[in-house]
Amino acid sequence: MRAGRSLSSQLLRMGRAAGVGSSDGRIRFVALTIATAVLAVTLVSVVATWATYEKRTERGAARTPVLRLHEGQTPDEAPLRLQMYLDDVHDRQVEVVFVEPVRPDAPLPPGMSRWPGAGEAVLSPSLAADGVGDRYGRVVGSIAPEGLASPGERYAYARPADGSLTVEHAMLATGFGSPDAGGFGDLATVRPFSVFLSLLIAMLGLPAGLFAVVATRLGAAGRDRRTALLGALGGSRRQLALLSTGEAAPALLLGVALTAPALGAVLVTDVRIPFVGYVLAASDMRAHAWQLVGALIAAPLMLAAVNVLMHRWTGPGRSTRPRAESRGRLVKAGAALCPVFLGILSWSPTAFATQGATQTVVLVSLLGTVGALATLPAAIALLLSAAGRGVTALGRSRGLAGTLLAGRWTQGRPGYLSRLVAGVVIAVGLLSVVQVYPSMHTASVQGALAMRERFGHSILTVQMPHGAEERTGSWAAELPPDVEVAVLDSTLGLANGAGEVREGPDGPVEVRQEVTVRGSCGALQGLGLKCPAGKGAGAVPLSPSTTALRALLPASVTQVGVSRGPLAARQGNVLIVYSPQGEALPLGRLKRDALAVLGPGALVESVGQGWIGGAALLSSQLRWVTLLGVAGVGLVALAAALNCLAEVVRFARSIAPVSVVTGRRRVYVTVAAWTLAAPLCAAAVLGAVSAVWVTLPYTTPPRNGELPPQMLSASVAVLCLLAVLVAGLAALSAVRESRRWRPRHD
Length: 746
Known about the structure:
The chain is of the alpha+beta class. The longest helix has 47 residues.
């Protein structure tokens, strides 16, 4: 037993010494360290995402009102009357729960120590920091963290000053805490866990996997010879694993040590993620501390396993020549799977058109994207390896020693070619996805921003709650003196311009939207409408002079009725409040006054705020794509750079004796051009072509993303230039090595 332990420790020390003494040991050490840190961050991110979603859902369920009465309980006996109200502050969605406790002992939601009094409000810390002031009532406290879905959530509880929440116009609740979380606050705006996890795997997991493979295969030729020698001497698989683990252990431990402080930080304090602004709750992380620590420990173990598996045992009594057949089979298997994933990408546009963006279709589409990017390097490597036969034939027929050597080199090395081109192909693919995905929503975002630029806060709409019609005059009397008000009466509301189909006595009947605008002559003329002579309503076509109405109403509405008369709103009407001079109205003050006078549910918005708020929400969600995509591209580029640097060192030392045979050092340029520059340039071109295929789910109708050809052309040009620089560096290094090289005398 003691001898076994002694041999195991000796093999670990031998592996460590071999790693330090290898020609590219420093490069491999750096690569393995970074790969361990990257894999640890990826695994920790997956666990942190799961923990965030789980705890956020738990808190959401705990604060969800129970909207059912107890047996025998009448509506008047319900302890709570609630009304949900959606607002926006700085174009960010805010959810306010207006509440009327019927009894002093009415149950409280999590995060609340008492109900606010009449005309008072309790805000979340983020909402209070936004400067909302007393819009919802006099602020008397803040919601504790256990009552918020996330630390940065904008949420509030408010109590009307006049007790306007009645049984007829409110939700009746008996308490809080539901098995399922309601769609309130942040829970209504986040993507499903499976979608975000797929994005995390595609943008961060795939580059981390590539980095792991590249790092473990750096300096592979020397380790393959040691592996074969150990097998020829009768070494077992376990002994080979110990040797490989000892070689990689220092770098793996250093990678974990570099990542551990970041994990400690998220366990101790709330951390705001750069660029996206999301606040990661430390309490959620502490609740899953063991899982997070397990993910950190799993990273070096997984990388050690990959390191062992990438250097397979050859068995006793075999040749000491490195084996490439198994890796060739792995490359061929990846190349065989590539058409499957490309087929999924070809199917995705049809699925989006017929089934819509369902969760299943989105996940399958993401699977196709990840699978295609993972297997395309193998397919391209086989193409380049097959092209090596042509290069070999060219060198043989023309008597070109460098071309012949390069052709033979690339012809039998699909694994080398796969690692060489993987960084280029995946980088171009990820860069294209990051470019295309946000562009799908550019039209709606630009339309909303153009509307904001045109009108600003000079035109507002006010949607009144039930029972507020008689208080409209009181609210209008408090408006600034230079403000006009008109009443817009729509049969289907502002958001239903396409009409709808309703069941009639004789079957379905199509109902079209009809709109009437009523107000004083001044109010009508300010909207670009002619004031009618009589009191009856006349139909007026919408024209370029009615830009405000055109912005408020959908395109299907081509004319409106115009009626002159006093301000007399009724249920379902919308008030148009605007400044004839085009000056910005005090939106915050008008919202506060509307809630105080008209009651909970009075919605005051600027023109197109629904689009602008949706665009702001979409923009914040797309920041995750940009953040993860840029991080992924950076990792791929770093992996490719380290791989190319190792190839330069390997190339220089392995090719140095060739000048003795040829008598010319120009052969180094030829070999470097064929083995480094040509494959990398070909990979750049093929990667750009494959990027068009990879982005099909986002650029083909019904989706409208755009992949700019200028971006692809620029990417190919830059990558080809870098390929030439790498080849030139390799040739210069080989020339220097050849000057120092001397034949060995045994």
